[in-house]
C-alpha cells in the first residue's frame, strides 16, 4: 500500500494530537510516545494493508485513542467506506472527534457507548486492538458483523492460545497474518462467526 501525501499529512496531524492530549488522558503508554510512528502508526497500517471492503461500513470497537480505527480511516479516506468508532470513555471520544475534525475525515463518526449497549451495527468490517480476549470478542463479532463480513483483530504473542480457547464455544474461520512490527504477534482475519463448537 502506497501512502499518499494527504495520508502522510493526516497521520502527522494525528501524531501531534496524540502528543498534545496524551499527558491528560493517557491514549498510549507514555514510554511509547517518542516512537509513535513505528510502535503505533506502522503497527496499525498493517490492518489497512489487508483486504478490507472497497465500500460499505467499518466499525472499530474499543477505539481508545483511535488505534487502529483512525489510522485505517486515514489510509482509506478516498474510499467510500463509512467508519464508526465505538468508545465508551467520554474524554477519549472527545479526542477522537477532535482528530476527525482536524484531519477532515468526513465519513467517520464516534459512538460514545459501551459496545455491550450498541445495537447491531451490520458492519462489513470490524477492527480492534488490545480490547479483550478472543472468546469475549466473538460475541461482539457475531452481533455486529454482516454475514459475509470479516474482522481484523490485532493480537499479541498469546494469540494461538486465545484461538484454542475461543474454539471451545465458537465456530469461525481465520487467517493469521504475522505482525511486521512485533515478533510473535498477529492480525487475525476472522469470518464466519457462529456460536457453538
TrEMBL record:
Query: Is the keyword rRNA processing in the record?
Result: yes
Alphabetized SUPFAM superfamilies for the sequence: S-adenosyl-L-methionine-dependent methyltransferases
Keywords on record: Cytoplasm, Methyltransferase, rRNA processing, S-adenosyl-L-methionine, Transferase
Q: What is its EC number?
A: 2.1.1.170
Reaction(s) catalysed by this chain's protein: guanosine(527) in 16S rRNA + S-adenosyl-L-methionine = N(7)-methylguanosine(527) in 16S rRNA + S-adenosyl-L-homocysteine
The record, for InterPro entries, names: rRNA_ssu_MeTfrase_G, SAM-dependent_MTases_sf
Ligand binding (S-adenosyl-L-methionine): 62, 67, 115-116, 129
Q: What does this protein do?
A: Specifically methylates the N7 position of guanine in position 527 of 16S rRNA.
What's the family? Belongs to the methyltransferase superfamily. RNA methyltransferase RsmG family.
Q: What is the designated name of this protein?
A: Ribosomal RNA small subunit methyltransferase G
Q: Which organism is it from?
A: Paracoccus aerius
Lineage, highest ranks first: Bacteria, Pseudomonadati, Pseudomonadota, Alphaproteobacteria, Rhodobacterales
